[in-house]
Structures are given as C-alpha cells and as structure tokens.
Write a structure and sequence with these properties.
Helix content of chain C: 25-40%
Bound molecules: adenosine-5'-triphosphate, magnesium ion
Helix content of chain A: over 70%
Low-confidence stretches of chain C: 238-249
Largest sheet of chain A: 2 strands, antiparallel
Shape of chain C: globular
Number of strands of chain C: 10
CATH architecture of chain A: Orthogonal Bundle
Radius of gyration of chain C: 17 Å
Largest sheet of chain C: 6 strands, mixed
Strand order of the largest sheet of chain C: 6-7-8-3-9-10
CATH topology of chain A: ABC transporter involved in vitamin B12 uptake, BtuC
Number of helices of chain C: 11
Oligomer: heterotrimer
Distance between the termini of chain A: 46 Å
Strand order of the largest sheet of chain A: 1-2
Distance between the termini of chain C: 36 Å
CATH class of chain A: Mainly Alpha
Mean pLDDT of chain C: 88
Strand content of chain C: 25-35%
Largest interface: A-B, 55 and 48 residues
Low-confidence stretches of chain A: 287-293
Strand content of chain A: under 5%
Order of helices and strands of chain C: EEEHEEHEHHHHHEHEHEEHH
Structural class of chain C: alpha/beta
Number of domains of chain A: 1
Mean pLDDT of chain A: 89
C-alpha cells in the first residue's frame, strides 16, 4: 500500500514536466495548427542552460528560471519570425512539421556534439532532501516541480482568460481569418503563443535539470510524451493539459513498477491511441483536439 | 511510332525517351561501373530504397492529403517480417525471395489497414499523424522488449555469407523503386487516383459525390505501408543484422518525407528528384562529415522548408508564371 | 450628393489563375446604405475582402476618404474605420459573447471608447447583454448574426460592410436584422451590404449595384432596380422574382 502510494506520488511529480510541455504544445498547436516536434529538444536545450549556469556560475536552478524563461520566450519569438512565420501561412502543414523536425535534428545533434551523450544533472545541495509524510517520502525538488507547474499553469491561464492578447490567442485557435479581420496581427498572436510555448519549454528544462539526469537523446521522447498529454487533455485547455501530464506520469510510473521499466513508453502510447480512437475530445471531453471532418 | 506520337504528343515523347534512356543507363550500370568498388553503387542502392518509401508516403500524403508519421514502423516491420520468415525457413529460397518480400509488404499493410480503419473512420487530419506516431513507438518498444521472439535490443542476425556482390542489391532495389513509382503513377491516373485527389481537396464534398472516403484513405494508407515494408525487406537483406534502433530509426520516417517535399509533394517525378538529391547529400555527408551529418541534415531540412516550401517541382511549375510576371496576374494574400 | 467615403476604381482580383473581379468600380457615399447583389460566385465577397485588405488586387485602386489604400494592412484599414462582418459570421464559438465583443475593440483607437461602444451594442441588441457571459457558440442563428454585427460596431466603424446578414435566417429574423441595420445607419454609420435576399436589400438601400461574374452590370437606386424587369430575369434568377426571403445557400 505504501509502495503503491509512493509510486503514484512519484508518477504525479514526474508528470509535471509532461504537463508543462503539453501546455506549450497546446498553445502552438491551437494557433498554428502544427505539432511542434522540437518541443522536447528545446526542453533539453534549456536543461543544459540551467545545468551550465549552475555548474559554471553556481547560479541556483530556481534563480535560473528568471533567466531561462525570458530567454526561451525570446528564442521562441526569434524562431517564429525567422522560420515559422511564412510556413504558418501555407496550407500545407508538412512544411511546418518538417521545419520542427529539422530543428529537432539540428538541436539534438549539436548538443550531442558539444556536450556528448553523458547524462547531466544539476546536483544542488538540496537535491536529495526528502520530506516524510507518514510512510511516504517526497523529494523536495520534485515537490517544487509540482509547485512550479501549478504556478506556470495559473499564469498561462490568467493570460489567456484575462488579457486582451490572451483572448485573441484563444480566438485565433478557433478562426485566424476572423481574428485578422478585426485588425489584430495574426503574426503577433502566433509569435506570442509560440514564445510562450518555448518559454514553457525553458521552464520544463529547469525542472528537468534540477530533478533528473538528462542527455541529448531525451528530446524526441519528451516531445512525444507532451503530445500524448496534449491528446489526453484536449487542446485549448490549460488545466486539462497539466492534469493529463500528471495522469500520464502516473500511468507510466504504475506501468514501470508493475510491468517493467521498458514498457512504460509503450503503455503511454497505447493509452494515447486508445484516447485518439475512443475519446477524441480528450479525457475531459473538452473541445476536440483536432477539428472534426 | 505514329500512334505513339498521337497519344503522347511532342512533350510526352521526349519525356518517354528520357525515361527509357535513364532506365537503360541505370539498368546496365553494373556492367560498366564496378558497383562493389564504387561508392556510387551503394548510393544508388540506398536512393532506390528511400525512393520506394518516399513514393508510398507521396501517395498517402501528397495525393490523399493524410499525413502519416508511422513510415518507420512499417519499414522496420517489413524488415523483421522478412528476417523472421527466413530464419524460420518459410519461403522458397530466402535470399531476395520474392514471396518473402511481398509478405514483408503485406504484413505492415495489414497493420496499417487496422489502424487506418480505426483512426481514419471518424476524424481527419492530425489524428492520423498523432496515431501513427504513437503506433510506431509502440511497435519499437515491442521489438526492443520482445525477448527471444524479436531478439530484443540486439536484434537478429541473418546468414551474411549470402552476400556476394552489390550488383544484385542494386538491381533489386532499382526494380522495386521503378515498379513502385510506376504503380503510384498508374494509381493516381486511374479512377482510384481521382478519388484520392477529390478527398485531398475536400473530403466532405467527395463523400457527398459518392466517394467512399474511408475505403480510399485506408487503401492508400495500406499501399504506402506496403511499399515501406517492401523497402524494409530489401534493406534487411542488406543489413543482415537487424536491430530496432536501425530499422525503426526516425530517419526512415523523416528522410523520405523530406525527399517528397523537396522534390514536390503530389507529383510523380518530385520524389525521384528529391531522393536523388537528399540521398546524395546524406550518403556523401556520412563520408565527409561522419557524426556531424545529422546536424547538416537538420539544417538542410530547415533551409528547404524555409525557402522552397513548394519543392523543386513547385519552382518548375511556377517558372512560366514568372515569365508572365508583367501581367501581374497573381493575387497575393496578405500575410497579416 | 455627399462626398464618397469609399471609392473602388477599376478593381481586378484573381485567386491564382482564377480571375474573380474584372475592373469593378463603385462608390459608397458617406451616410448611405449601399447594397451589392448578384448571383452566387459573382465576386461580391471577393470585393469586400479586397476592401478589407485580406487580398490585394492585381489592378485598380481602393480609396477611402480619398486615400489610396494600396497594399496597406488590414489593421490600418480597421483603424481608418473600415470594418467587415464576414460571410458566415465567423464568431469565436468557444469565447463568451462579451469576449467576442471585447476583441471587436482590440485596436488602441477603439479602446478609449470601449464602455460607450459596449453600451451602444447592448442597447442595439439587448439580448446580447443578457447572454454576455454565455458562449457565443450557444447563441441561436439570429443572435449570432447580431453578435457578429455587434463585434463590428465595437470597432467604431465609419463604414461597416456586411456580407449576407440574412444567410440561413427565418423571414422574421431577416426582417429584424434589416431593421437593426437601418437603426445602425440612422445612428450615422455608412453601410455596404451584400445580400442574397434581393427584394429586402433593394427596399432597404439608398443605392444598389448588381454584380455578375466579376463585373458590375447595373446600378441605381433601390426603387429603380426593383422596377427593372430585365434585371430580375437576367441577373437575379428566380429568387428575386418569387421574392424568396429565407435565402440559404
Ligand atoms: N479562396 C478562393 N480561391 C479560389 N477561388 C475563389 C476563392 N474564393 C472565391 N473564389 C472564386 O471567386 C469567385 C467569386 O467568389 P465570391 O466568394 O467573391 O462570390 P460571391 O459573389 O460572394 O458568391 P456567394 O453569393 O456564393 O457568396 C467564384 O468563382 C469563386 O469560386
Ligand atoms: Mg460571398
């Protein structure tokens, strides 16, 4: 019983990263209709940023958030205006998909070349603290990850619901043409959504470096997991994406514990396909993740 | 000759001449070039393998408008199917066994039909991409975790003493690539192809005109899986040692897509041009840049998509419009 | 006659190789309701898209208060007061009624008078006030059309261009929408409206243009065109003759 509880809690805490990444994918998919497959690579890239800032300059990972997230946001804006702006205007979505893939190949392999495949981890003094509640141990950094994820989800939620630009972002995921007709710059709306998406990758990168060891090969798997969480949570639903990330973490954690570590991936993808087939609106029954015929 | 001229016209006859000449040159290449000693032999072999996969993807994505991201699963399934049958002594003569190769195509086609029926039945667009990507990852894990049956992460070994010369590889891959291209070409010119294009343009209106949208989508998807599996079996014969990390590699998904898009999606000649160019860059990149070559592949993908999203055929078809530029007859949609 | 607010001169537009407009000219004077009618595919919506800046013409000019709009952005035009209510309403169904209206007043110019615009919309369409916190997608067809017009009003338009307001509405609702358009006009907004419902359009306008296959083929006051037998037969088809009000397409 205690073990089960421990497994569940670890799952939830691990799922926070999926959740953060899924919110980012959701924003990008909502406005630009592309699956940004390089999301995982960006997370790893920012995990390296955190790692190096910590290792070389001794900057605490949580302080890194103040650097990493704004930098990631700017990187997002830059990527949008240099690469994705024209592609977003093209009907053929292969173009944006391949741009993301090209980016993924480049970033992953550059990281491999520069930093090798050695696993890294920002070993802070508090990385091994645990908080004991009853019989269950909760790692401090993992708990912080959950707190950060909740805060991030709240900020994004607030932006989307309460600000003019955020409302425009939500409107754009329904009908970009209509948004344009109101005099709103569609490029700016997409750029901001993209910037926030990458900004969240920056945040997930900090979490990754502070809690887990990572290497350049994690990127693609992570992007897929975020995609799974996205499908589970339904597009345009911040809390749905976050919860789906947590649920995915639990599923994997249970799968790894009861069936075997290597099977966790297959299980989450199987859940993914089942959800696509039987619950196309996600498990929370929100808007269809993808427009119907 | 006159009848041929009447049917094909001036341009058609020239094209036919070029195709026949190219095929004759390629077909007889091993007689005047040592394909074992020259890297060109390997390059053309791997190009043909890619082209077969690419034409399959072209059929489902280019002509039908459904983006599949499971190509590498079908490719690997084809390779493993061939190898599994061979190891179990099923087949006629095992090495480049036509029956094995056909079965290696049919097996992934069946998988594709099932997943296609489930995913394509109610929804369109990104569901197929998502689902096929997930499927591919599941298949990958199944093979890694398959224990004795699949050989696990180490994979399985075939009898490499069968290898005699690149020649036979070259000819088989060339023949298959030509047949694949021909098949896709004939398909798209038939009523089947018309239905696919109708679906690509507007599947609701296609359905209202009596096109059985699901049937055609699934058939096109199965056909593309068949070609991927077939190509996988050829590559399997080449590798002799099959492991999940090599035959289910993402490159077998993304490189063919790049080739199709670089050449021109939804054209028959585009994938041919695209695979010749990309495969050259990758094959020779491997020689000169070794481990760095995926960085350049990524960069190349970005460059092409950024500056030539319509592909080479897109440029070619736009050329006449550029000539007519003075008329200014092209309405531009504003970016904002 | 009043000064022209919008002047379209010799406008041609193509979609790729397909030409949709062939040298179209029309003027909309300040303070008028101008109707644009014509069969399906005549190019009416294309004309509005060109005026809005969604597509650029291959030839000709669009002048607003004498300024050539050239290849200016949509934003620039909305800032000038050119606002379109697009065909099919194009609301944001998952946003609330209030959020839809808020987006109508997105540009800085319109934010200052936001409260007043909102009051104006709510007094024009009281039902929107009641439903302001509900999802736009849950409104009835008529209410959605009101919201679409309301959203445009939020942008404080000088010229409001309405594309097929009566599409899919019952005769009674169509009548109600026309009344509202008339009220809007009386409040000082110039209106260019596209209508399938020719009888209604001609009755409610000061001036009308008839389009066919990318050309303006006739123009005149509403009464003149209503009386024109030839027009009914040649360009407007059965619909106009029978006066079918619940037009759908
Ligand atoms: N996006 C587009 N791409 C290509 N052709 C188009 C496009 N939009 C319109 N057309 C073509 O341009 C012509 C004019 O279309 P438009 O929509 O302006 O007509 P309309 O008068 O508004 O018709 P309706 O009454 O049906 O709304 C038609 O032949 C149409 O097929
Ligand atoms: Mg129209």
């Amino acid at each position: 019983m205690t073990i089960l509880l421990q497994v569940l809690i670890n799952g939830v805490l691990f799922g926070t990263m999926y959740g953060i990444a899924a919110i980012g994918l959701s924003l990008v998919f909502g406005t630009m209709r592309i699956i940004f497959l390089a999301q995982g690579s960006m997370i790893v890239l920012f995990a390296y940023l955190t790692y190096w800032l910590f290792t070389l300059l001794g900057i605490d990972p949580y302080v890194c958030i103040l650097i990493s997230v704004p930098v990631a946001f700017m990187v997002g804006l830059g990527l949008f205006y240099t690469l994705f702006k024209d592609a977003a205007a093209i009907e053929d979505k292969n173009v944006s998909l391949l741009l993301a893939v090209g980016l993924m190949y480049m970033v992953d392999n550059l990281m491999l070349t520069f930093w090798t495949a050695n696993p890294r981890f920002a070993a802070t003094s508090y990385a091994s603290y645990t908080i004991r509640i009853g019989d269950v141990n909760i790692s401090f950094v993992r708990l912080m990850a959950l707190v950060i994820a909740l805060l991030a989800a709240f900020v994004v939620f607030y932006f989307l619901k309460r600000t003019r630009l955020g409302t425009a972002v939500r409107a754009a995921s329904a009908d970009m043409q209509a948004v344009k007709l109101l005099g709103i710059s569609s490029n700016w709306v997409m750029a901001v959504a993209f910037g926030i998406g990458i900004g969240l990758a920056g945040l997930a990168g900090v979490v990754m470096a502070s809690v887990y060891s990572f290497d350049p090969n994690y990127g693609f798997t992570f992007a897929l997991k975020a995609l799974v969480a996205l499908a589970l949570g339904g597009i345009g639903n911040v809390w749905g994406a976050l919860s789906a990330g947590l649920i995915l973490g639990v599923i994997e954690s249970l799968g790894a514990y009861y069936i075997g570590a290597g099977w966790a991936d297959a299980i989450s993808y199987a859940v993914f396909i089942l959800v696509l087939i039987f619950m196309p609106n996600g498990i929370f029954g929100g808007r269809a993740a993808v427009k119907k015929v | 000759m006159k009848a041929l001229y009447r049917r094909l016209g001036h341009k058609g006859l020239i094209s036919l001449g070029i195709i026949v000449a190219a095929l004759a040159a390629l077909g007889t290449l091993p007689f005047w070039l040592d394909v074992d000693a020259s890297y060109t032999g390997y390059y053309l072999f791997i190009t043909c393998v890619y082209l077969t996969v690419a034409q399959g993807w072209n059929l489902i994505a280019g002509y039908t408008g459904q983006i599949s991201l499971g190509t590498h699963a079908f490719f690997g399934l084809g390779a493993y199917t061939m190898a599994g049958l061979w190891l179990n002594g099923i087949g006629l003569y095992f090495f480049f066994d036509v029956t094995l190769m056909v079965v290696a195509g049919i097996a992934p086609a069946i998988v594709a039909s099932i997943i296609g029926l489930l995913l394509l039945s109610r929804l369109k667009g990104d569901y197929l991409s998502f689902g096929t990507l997930g499927l591919a990852q599941i298949v990958y894990v199944l093979f890694v975790k398959g224990g004795k049956i699949t050989g696990g992460a180490n994979g399985i070994y075939l009898d490499a003493s069968y290898f005699s010369s690149m020649r036979v590889y070259y000819w088989v891959a060339l023949l298959v690539a030509v047949l694949a291209t021909l098949a896709v070409w004939l398909l798209t010119r038939s009523s089947f192809g018309l239905a696919l294009k109708a679906i690509r343009e507007d599947d609701i209106s296609a359905a209202s005109h009596g096109v059985n949208v699901l049937k055609y989508k699934v058939l096109a998807f199965a056909m593309s899986a068949f070609l991927a599996g077939l190509a996988g079996s050829i590559y399997g014969y080449y590798l002799f040692h099959l492991e999940p990390a090599s035959v289910f590699n993402m490159n077998w998904l993304f490189y063919p897509i790049l080739m199709v898009v670089l050449g021109g999606t939804g054209t028959i000649i585009g994938p041919v041009i695209g695979s010749l160019i990309c495969s050259a860059l990758f094959a020779y990149g491997d020689i000169y840049f070794g481990g760095y070559h995926p960085i350049f592949s990524g960069f190349l993908i970005i460059l092409v998509m950024r500056f030539m999203p319509g592909g080479i055929m897109g440029l070619v078809s736009k050329a006449p419009a550029l000539w007519r530029k003075k008329e200014g007859a092209v309405a531009t949609t504003t970016p904002e | 006659m009043a000064s022209p607010l919008l002047e379209v001169r010799n406008l041609s537009v193509s979609y790729g190789d397909v030409r949709a407009l062939f040298g179209v000219s029309l003027t909309v004077e300040e303070g008028l309701i101008v109707a644009l009618v014509g069969s399906n595919g005549a190019g009416k919506s294309t004309l509005l898209k060109a005026v809005s800046g969604l597509i650029y013409p291959t030839e000709g000019e669009i002048l607003f208060e004498g300024e050539d709009l050239g290849r200016t952005s949509i934003r620039h035009r909305v800032n000038k007061g050119i606002v379109q209510v697009p065909e099919g309403r194009r609301l944001f169904p998952n946003l609330t009624v209030h959020e839809n209206l808020k987006l109508g007043a997105y540009l800085p110019r319109t934010r200052a008078g936001y409260k007043d615009s909102l009051e104006r919309v709510f007094s024009l369409f009281p039902v929107l006030r009641e439903r302001q916190n509900g999802k736009a997608g849950l409104l009835s067809g008529g209410e959605q059309q009101m919201l679409a017009i309301g959203r445009a009003v939020m942008a404080q338009p000088r010229l409001i261009m309405i594309d097929e307001a009566s599409l899919g509405l019952s005769p009674i609702l169509t009548m109600a929408i026309f009344d509202l358009i008339t009220t809007l006009h009386q409040q000082g907004t110039t209106i260019l409206m596209i209508e399938q419902n020719v009888n209604m359009a001609l009755k409610h306008c000061n001036k009308a243009y008839v389009m066919s296959t990318g050309h303006i083929v006739m123009s005149g006051t509403g009464e003149e065109l209503l009386a024109n037998e030839e027009l009914r037969k040649a360009y407007l088809g059965r619909r106009a003759v029978t006066g079918n009000q619940g037009s759908g397409s």
